[in-house]
Amino acid sequence: MPINIYPNVLGETLDSDAFDPDIDKYCQEIYEGCNKGSRGANNVPQVIAALAKDGLTRHYIQFRYKELYDKDLAQVMRKEFSGGEFGFCMQALALPADEAEVAMIKKATLGVGAAVDILYAILCGRTNAEVEILKNSYYKVYKKDLAALISSEVRGDNERLLLNCLAANEQTFLSSTHTHEKAMEDAEYIHDKTNVFEIICTAPPEHLQQISKAYQEQYNITLEKAIEKGLGGKAKEGLGILVGMKLEPYETMAKLFKKACAGIGTNDFLLLTCVVRFQTVIKRVMAAHFDLFNKTIHERIRSECSGKFLNVLIAVLDAVSPDEKGATVTPIKVDKIIEEEDEDEKEEAKETKATPMPLKKAAADTSTLSTRARRRREEAVRRLVTDVTRRPETPVLGGGQGTAIGAKPPAESHDWLVASTVATALERGLDRDLHSELVQEAKDNAGRIGQICHDHSDAFLNSVGKVVALGGPAADLAEALQEADEEMKQNTAGKMLEAATLLEHAKQCDARARTLAAFVSACRNVAVLLERARKQAALGRPRAALDAVDEARTCLAAPVSPLVLMGSLENEISDENKTIRLEETPFGVRAMAMLPKIENEVLMGARRGLNRWFLALRSGGDGAKAGRAVLRKCADSMALGPGQLGIGGHLPPSYIWRAKTADNLIARVDQNGKVARAVRLGYWFERDGPKEAELLERLALPGVERRAEGFAMAFGWYRCWEANAPLLVDLTDMNVAEPVLSGSRHGLGGSRHGRSGRTLSFRARDSSRSGANLAVSRPSAAQGSNAEKKRSPWATLLTPSIIFKDSPTRKEDDAKLANVPESVHPVRRAELAFNLLGRHEEFIQYYEQNRFGDTKIGGGSKEGKDDKETRSSLSSLTGDDVSVGTDRIFFAKGLSHLCASVVGFSAVEAALEVGNFGDNDEEIDIKNVTGDAAKASNRSSDSATRFRDSSARYERALVTEMGDLLRGRAIGASLAELARASFLMASFRSALKIVHPSSSTRRLDKELLALDIDLIMTALKVAQDEQFKATAKVVGDDRKDPLLVTEKVYPSMKKGNKDLAAQPEEVVGLPFGLSDMKQKPIQDESQLVERRFGKAEREEFYTFSQSVPVVIRSIHARAIACAAFALSQEELGQHFPSQKKGSGAAGYVLDCVEACVSVAAVGMQDGENLVDEGAVDKAVQIMANISAFQHSLPRLFGSLMRGMCHVGMIRADQVEETFQYAEATLRGADKACDAQVGSMYTLVYEICRNKIDAHINYALDGFSWVSKSAREMPNAYCEGIIGYLRSVFLSLGPMDDGSKAGLHLSCCGHVADRLTRLLTDKPNDGSNADLAPISKIDAFGIKNLNLDVEEFQNFAESTGVPQLSECFEELKCLTGALLDRDLITLLNPENTAARRRKYPFLNLEKLGNVLDKYVGMGLSEKLMGSTGRTGDMLMMEKKDVNQCLRLIRSQR
Predict the structure, then answer these.
(1) In the chain, what's the furthest Cα-to-Cα distance?
(2) Where are the alpha helices (DSSP H) in 732-785?
(3) How far apart are CA 469 and CA 462, in angstroms?
(4) Burial status of residue 424 (CB atoms within 10 A of its CB: 0-12, 13-18, 19 or more)
(5) Bridge-partner residues for 1097, per DSSP?
(6) How does DSSP classify residue 890?
(7) How far apart, in whole angstroms, are the C-alpha atoms of residue 882 and residue 898?
(8) Is the peptide bond before 652 cis (omega within 30 degrees of 0)?
(9) Strands, E, within 162-251: which ranges?
(10) I need a surface site. Which of 12, 543, 907, 1319 has the fewest CB within 10 A?
(11) Is the pTM of this model over 0.70?
(12) pLDDT tens per residue across span 277-322
């Protein structure tokens, strides 16, 4: 509600004799500082110090200065400190409060345009009395009406608002008048924008609160928001100040300080008006300012001002509320200050929040508007009548606060009120109505007075008569009483009075002696209590110390008889208080001074204990150590599983049970698909299940390490590979060199090294032998912790190092976890100390600020363009900046530390919530609990609820930031890091559930921590990229030689056991059917080797080289890692959309395998240019490698499907659907391999074709086909081509039969086609740019070519490839027909059938082209024809050739 800011003495007649002597001293200091003889910069601080006092003192100074030096202090300040805001501030301090505001208003209206914000700050929200004083003072100083000044300087809404404020017509609250219905009516007027300013200005604060509530109820928006939405410009700010000064004056004044200093530059004028005007209430304004902005007014002014102006403002503030520069300010609530200053005054600050809604703009009908206008007119007339008929003797100042600031107003005040009211009536056109109402009021009052006189005249006259009649008897009675009194004093009471005096004196002496003894005893008791309190405070026992303090204070405040003072001092004690207290004595004063010091020591001890506790949790890492212990226990519990049947549980029951469940699920699957059939190969439960369980029991102890080993074993890792084989999943594994294979051969003629006892690293072994080797290479479970244990590759890959049981910090971490309930002891003691001292809110604020705060990280970019600060709760918790560091460091150390810290935080909060600790000092006797203790207990309960909410919010912020940070870092993580992080986060969520299940954050952990599907797809992409790099590395190190079969591997057969025979074991090192991929026996005798007993045997090779098993092993390991990642995500709460993937997690694992197979098939191609090098053997080996890789895929998929059934990733109701999706992914992987096999086949053929073309071009370049004689042996080019083809065909051993046959046909067909084109193409045909077609050929050339063709056919027959010799049939028919003596006869049309039977592949057009090149027999050939060498071949002359050509052309 509006408050008075003028001093109480304003308007009173001052008596200088009653002034304090310091007033004259201040006046003298001002005079000396302003004296011209000593005037200078050094005297300015003196003047400021003397003048900058509280409002009442300044009022006395300016009055006394006039009396002492006959000078007006304001004129002196104007002369000495002219110019600038500093000078005006000094002048304002030298003026009375009302005249200072008048000067401020005058300055605000000088020049062009008025400073409306200054006018609003001064005029809005003032009491009626102060507005009247302000208007009178302005007229007194400037001889001008203040309202006229406002009307001339401002316009529009600003003018109307300020004139309504100057009307000073705020009503007095009457419950009968200001009802709820009236509040609803006024709220409707305000909503319709009808007389908004008049209603708010005239409404008393209580009624304005009712209007605000009614407005919100009716329009669902607060009055302040409606003003902000409905008005514009400065009027909105002014109306806000008006409402604020009525409802929350001190908060509104504090906001004016903020407004003066807001933005770029400071509004010095507004700032000095606030400092000077609000000085009388500055304490409450300061408290409100700190509550609103968490900053003192001193700090705000020091940050905005400087120089002398800063000095004078700070001096004015320090005169009322001193504050040392840079001192720590303890927050004090406004209510506390108001309680200390006036215990009967209680302020209520209620703020209603609602959804903003614009002001209603709707037109009402004509009748409603008329009724409202008439009602408003009547209301306005009633208000004017009330102002006119106000009693003149009513005090001008005071009003709603009930505190009069001045005495009765001047005589002309009432006349001014009447004149102002009449002027208002004339202005509004209500003069006639006002006159009528006043006349009617006068008539009514005259009638009432006459009626009263008539009704009571008889009773009044009778009362006067009775009083006159009693005058005589009363006088006689008084005279008799006086005579009796004199007689008693003179003759009776003298001696009795003396005796009574002596008796009373004796009693007083005795009482005084007893009182002194009690007094000395009380002093000694107080001294003992003070010493006890100090000792208990030093020992950190707040309750004992404060109990001693309270007991000492009680002793000091206990009343003591005044007899102890003796003598004349007793007479000085007032009649109202005939007792004294020990605290009023010098000893008591010193003791009372010690009590706050002891309380402060208790408080400081509690703060120190809290600070040490905070430091131990953050920098000391106690919380992170306890969190590591919890994570380790939770991860171990998750690995063991319910009933210890988890993957890492006790053996053999857990593994055997899971393996049998998986076998039963697989038995239900339809066997039509490849995967469904392959999943049964290489595994038999009765044999492999117990064996694997026994091996797993030897490998690792129950817990997380057994979980990792069991996970890999479930996917068939130890059935397929050596135990110490590199996994090639982590980035570091790619630098591990694979063992060099000995005994490899390149083709058939390569060298063979290391035969003496050395074998392949992939040597097939019996699984029992591999298990025994593995048991020897790693400490067994029975060895315990005495041996230095080297963790297996799978435990290192899938398990974060923080949760291993053999962690070096395990004992320390477990000890910290066990001590968590006791570690919260400092918090309880500090809370108790603060509560007992009544500073509960301070404890809450201090604890939350240090416990639940955040810190700034990542302070912008290096260029300084991005200055947006980022707040991090995790950095505040751990003391480290979580935004720095690489992804490798984050996943290696940072994530584990963050998880441990958050779990430690939750454990500490749970301990605080439970409060299970013992402290003898804090035990409370229930029977002796006082009211204060009960209140403290209630406060503790309230604080517990508040702390629980704050802790939940902070924990939610920690978990949210943890999830966001992990999602952000996961983009650059490797698959191994993602797998470890996923398992760590699953353990983290489980740990949070266990240590703090009551937190409201638990229901949000799943959404905050689980990685989304996009990042899971990113993990698949990461796995794909890593697989490509691993494949490229392995293939790059491969020599492309087929592996030599050094040991014969046969399926294990046992008599009478058909199942074992049907399901052979996987060959370790060559699983998934690789051991069956052997080349067929070759015919080359050079590869026969001598064995024992002198028996020669042929060497046997696999179709693939060294890289194939390594690539398959890397895919197998990467699939297991991806499955572990997906399973941990399911445990963490991730939902995999099933869609077409059956059991969602299994579908993503299959997608990962398909992607890895695709990139591996691409990566298995050698990066070298095999076409240019002509390395057929390498190209063939790569093609064979891809084929062998493709051959192993069904069984690889089957092993993975069995593993996912084993670990529970595939549910029983989704087995069929998941196997169907596995078939689809296998088809996709086969398709990718087929594409690469086809590409390599094309590459091999291209190499062969290029070599053949090069050989033909080189051998036949310049070759003469006009031989003149027949050869008995084939041409040299024929032998060369056959030799090359033989070497190529011998190097095709790694290929499958179909590819071999196809390449044979392609190469031979190309040779035949090339020779046919050379023979039949026309000489001028440029289709063959390398070698021109034959231009001339004779019969001997054709004979020799026919001999070459026969040699080619013989070679084709020798390869054993069916129908390979048919590639040369066309060339054979062509040359045979040209050598046939019956050629001319066969060319006749009637012999077509016979010709086709004899030469089925003969083409007449090609035959004609050869005849065009035919060189006929000359004379010499005729003469030699009798030699007999040409008896079996056709020798044609020119005419015979022409005849043949004619016959051919006739048949076209």
Answers:
(1) 209
(2) 767-777
(3) 11
(4) buried
(5) 1089
(6) I
(7) 9
(8) yes
(9) none
(10) 12
(11) no
(12) 888 888 899 989 998 888 899 988 988 898 888 888 898 888 888 8
